[in-house]
Amino acid sequence: MIVKRLVILVNLTMKMNSKKFVLSGLNALIMASLLAPIIIFAQTENESITPTSSVKAIQKRVNNSAVAKGFCNRFTEVATKFDQRITDRVAKIEARRTQQLANVEKRKETRLNRINENRAKLDANREEHYAKLVERATTDNQKQAVENFKAAVVSAVTARRTAVDAAIQTFRQDVEQSIANRKSAVDAVINTFKSAKTAAIEKAKADCASSVDPKNVRETFRQDMKAAQNKFQSDRQAIEKMRTSIEPLITARKTTIEKAAQDFKAAMEKARTDLKAVFQTQQ
């Protein structure tokens, strides 16, 4: 009967080895937080303007020979609409970022509460089984063995929780830094495109004011916007590669938690063996 109680206690304690306890949803947590807002910038025009669709729309207009002749007359109107669409898109990016961060914080709080609740239940179960072991101990050696067992379990649990908490904290800090880096990169790409767009527009306006042939103004503007578009696409692809930066963080966290679980299991096996030996020799 004593041995059976010991096995129950060990099994209850070993439930902490469940990945759901410390890992469930973290990847989703973490991966949801790292989705690039710049992807929004590449949606179709019926939802909102994109650098690519905006440039193509302008190019389509200015490539028409009739439009080319009146390019300078209509340019201010086209440029104003272009500016407004870009402004609206950036505003939506910021709104999406705010919502994503709020969702991340909410999910993190929910998971932390779940972890703490599970740990509290396991602690309560262990205390109940400690009490039952104390009731079964009839000799001084058995009573001391129970106290030793309890101390070993507490030490193993504390060591594991400390390692797991540290791994999670380090992971979250690294992820937050990755998010910040990605945000900075996205902002830089958008600002670079906006600056190039502004420079192209201002040059076209100046050329129109200087009575430069509208066809030449149109072609120069088209080339400038095409270069800005290509630069934007290239920079965006570079940012997409930043997604892989999260993978080493996930691996490092997983390795640390798995090692903590192995150390915990070894400590519990030793504690169980030591306690079982005392009770068996004195039965």
Description of the structure:
With 283 residues, the chain is an all-alpha fold. The protein has one domain (2-281). Helix content is 86%, strand content 0%. The protein contains 9 helices and no strands. Helix 3 runs antiparallel to helix 6, helix 4 (51-63) packs antiparallel against helix 8 (214-240) and helix 7 packs antiparallel against helix 8 (214-240). The longest helix has 70 residues, at 140-209. It is rod-shaped, with a radius of gyration of 32 Å. Residues 1-50 have low confidence and may be disordered.
Brief descriptors of the model:
0% strand, mainly alpha
Give a quick precis of the structure.
The chain has 283 residues and is an all-alpha fold.
Ends: how far apart?
Answer: 11 Å
Give unreliable regions as ranges: 1-50
DSSP summary, beta strand count? 0
How much helical structure, as a percent, in the residues?
A: over 70%
Topology record:
Blueprint: H1 2-14, H2 19-22, H3 26-33, H4 51-63, H5 65-69, H6 71-136, H7 140-209, H8 214-240, H9 246-281
